[in-house]
Amino acid sequence: MKINYRGIGSDLKNILFEEFRKNENTLFVFENSASFFEIKREFLQNEEIQQDLGIFQNFRLINSYDFYENVFVTNKIVVKEEKQVVLFYNSLDEKLKKRLEVSSYYDIIDIAYNYYNLFAELQEHKIDLENIELENWQKNLFETLKMVDEKVKETCQMKGLILPYMLRNVENISDNFLRKYKKICFVNKVRFSPLEKEIVKNFEEKGIIVENILQLSENDFDTKELKINESFSLPAKEIFDAKDINIEIHEFSSKFGELLGLVRKLEEVEKESKKAGKKNGALGENYRIFEAQENAEEAKSDYQLLRQQKISSNLEITMKDTKIYKILNLIYNLLDNMKEINRKSGEKLFLFRVKDLYDTYKSNDLLNIFDLKDSYYIFQNLASKDYKYISREELERINQDELKKLEKENQKEKFKDIYKKRMTAISKIIKFVEELEKVYEYTTLKEYGDYLEKIYLNNEEKVKEDKNVKDKYFEALSEMVVLEDFSFDNLWDKFFNENISANLLKLFLKYLDKKSIGLNLEETAEEDLENRFSINSFQNISENTKENIIILNLQDSFPKIRMNNFLFSKVQRAKMGLPTSDDKKLIEMFKIYQNILSAKNVYLAYVKDLEKNIDSASVIEELKLKYGIKVIEGEISEAEELYFVKKYFLKDRKEKWDKKEIGEFIQSKLEKDLEKINAEKLSLGYYSFEKMRDFEYGYYLEKLIGEQEVEKVEDELNVKIFGTIIHAFYENVVMKNKADLENKTFEIDRNQLAEILENVINSFEYKVPKEYLEFYKKVSFEEILNSAEKYFEKLIKKLETEKDIQIYFEERIKLSSEKELFENVSINGVTDLHIKTSDKNYLFDYKSGKLRDGKKGYKTDKVYKAMEQLDYYSLMLENDNNENIEKIIVDTWEGALVSDERTEDKKLTKENIEEVISRYRNNEVYDLGNFKDSKNYFYKEYANICRREDELSDEDE
């Protein structure tokens, strides 16, 4: 093979155009796809060379991937991408699954890809599998992989399949393809694998001339190993000085500062261009900008700050970043966490996790596709009631209950409108749920293929994705659907768990994971001609000459090399002759040196962050040391910063940019609308009264805001639900044994208690996460039964001497004598248990929270708070005289009865309540409460709104 050395910094376009003019029967193979597309574009657009060559052109340009796709042929089916994983899993017998410690398809995905990459690499570099020196921990795994390899090859042989790496063999070289060319010319192939050396030798044996055009010097290339020399580095300073290249190196302390530095540079470019009489249209072509860091998603979010009309970004992103992927992932989560319950009737009940529905309702794109926006308020109401699961059946039941309630509360004409609106909204949720239930029953890729095609095409206008996204989506879909063309028996048998549907959708998402968008290099090359600056990924930089070049974020460990070091260490790889990260880094260094040394003006920037131990990359240090280039620290004046932000970061502004200052805080005095307050009907429960008393303004704000959205849905069994279960359990026990308790014939039966508790728990099937249920049954609920036994023993003893016992539970009492307080004012509440006897009223309040403070006894503040609640409820009894009322707190954790030991001044009286309500209805300004009280949690919720310190002067305080 002839090697044509052209030296670092040479002009690739001129070199190749010189070769093209010979018009020989040559195939030019580009190792760098970006170089291929740029050269191809410039060649086709160059009128002079097109006229010289005419219509009969004997040579052809091709990138390396397409070259090998054409060189190797087979009459077998080539298995690619995710189909390789399916083949891998189908080839495993039970013995191999056990050795690999896998049980389902998704357990082996990473193992499968590691296996294919490893064995492809071993074949590519002609490694004898029997002579590899392994550590003890590696031997068992490698032996297992060799056994897998044999099984995979057996399956391929039996089914007429072949893997890409198996296809790469000189025996499969296509003579039909090669006979078209007399010469094959590689362009900048700086490393040949042992297999590629063998391929080159085969070409030459067939009489084909092989050449390699390299933009390197002879000293930079190892002709024996056919790879770039390890000693490759920047050329001497004399060579650099002769090139007369203007290199600027800029250091910034932040990425935003770097962006400002970039726009300042581009501002200078525009001014110089105008002075020279150039057209703006040439700017994008002559100034090329590249992003050095490989985290495209993070970099793209930074560049989105820039006005896209001025500076756009064309960085690689995957399908994971697209709207359609995120929508399908939400559907997958819904399906994956669905619970299927088989009823005795034979019907199936499908439970959906509310947490997943919450995520669904946060996606505007999904709400648009399934027309769910009108039902948002219904879902929020559902989430606010602590539902953890929901079903179509439960949705319908809740809706009927809600309609009955609304019908009672509203006039007939108004109810008609409410009914119509609610039925429209609920029908949309139910339709969505029904569709998911149908999809859940899918068991084949054909069914999914039709559904996924429909969901994209029917909603194309709503989602509004880029054309490239659509192409990649359907490319992945076609690749997935043909999996069932494999002639495997029971293809999906034992592949997944019982939820086949969710796993098939996950399979499609895995296909999408592999698809990159925004990297159509042919289109990128065209876009660079547009009237704007474009930021591209350094990963896609060509070796073609760029007159002016900007490279950003040259810090940290650039270039970062992704190496799959599965099984073998770096030292082992080097010893075996496999490429290491150092080998790949040399190739990336060649690309950056070539671009820097072939340009006229170079702008390099990096971000230095000493706190994170981030400094300039090695390429910057080499340029500084070898060529004596000084670093320019990126200081930007305030005036420049404001100008650049206005021009490059904001949309077009027609209004004048005026400097605005934040003035002093203006006190509002928080004045009340007393006329409105006194006219409205006020019904106060205890908690509302408490808020009014402790923090009037917060009470007003809460009423003003109304029902707030649920911001987070958790799977855990929260304290609120736990308390509700406890209350329901105690109430059901009393309800079931009411007559016996009243007749003093009640006997505690633990089996009955356990049955009632079990039934109560089951009634909360939509509110108690299934995965937590068994845990709580074993731990907490047994303790509840023990406590309940203690409680009822004490209750029986307390009622032993009482006569004429009457029991009321969860009794709702509304004060009828409203005039005794104020006009339009009433109080209401719920007492957990009210027992009336011949001469006494007992009021019980069940508390599931922690009342004890270790061995110190009961927490006074907790008990007093609970007792105050009973004070409030006691005022709603017909007889307001508290002398015949006994208030008892039930500690449900210990089954203990906590009696009222407060002094009279600690009790809440009717006069206290009247005083609070009178202040609310008559004082002209809202009271802000005691903000220094650490227990005033309600104040803390609105602290940033009311700003007590600013609202009140020193005198007020």
TrEMBL record:
Tell me which SUPFAM superfamilies the record gives. Restriction endonuclease-like (SSF52980)
Gene3D superfamilies tied to this protein: 3.90.320.10
What Pfam families is this protein classified in?
PDDEXK_1 (PF12705)
InterPro entries cross-referenced by the UniProt entry: PDDEXK-like_dom_sf (IPR011604), PDDEXK_AddAB-type (IPR038726), Restrct_endonuc-II-like (IPR011335)
Query: Where would I find the PD-(D/E)XK endonuclease-like domain in this sequence?
Result: 696-914
Signal peptide per UniProt: none
* Annotated protein name in UniProt: PD-(D/E)XK endonuclease-like domain-containing protein
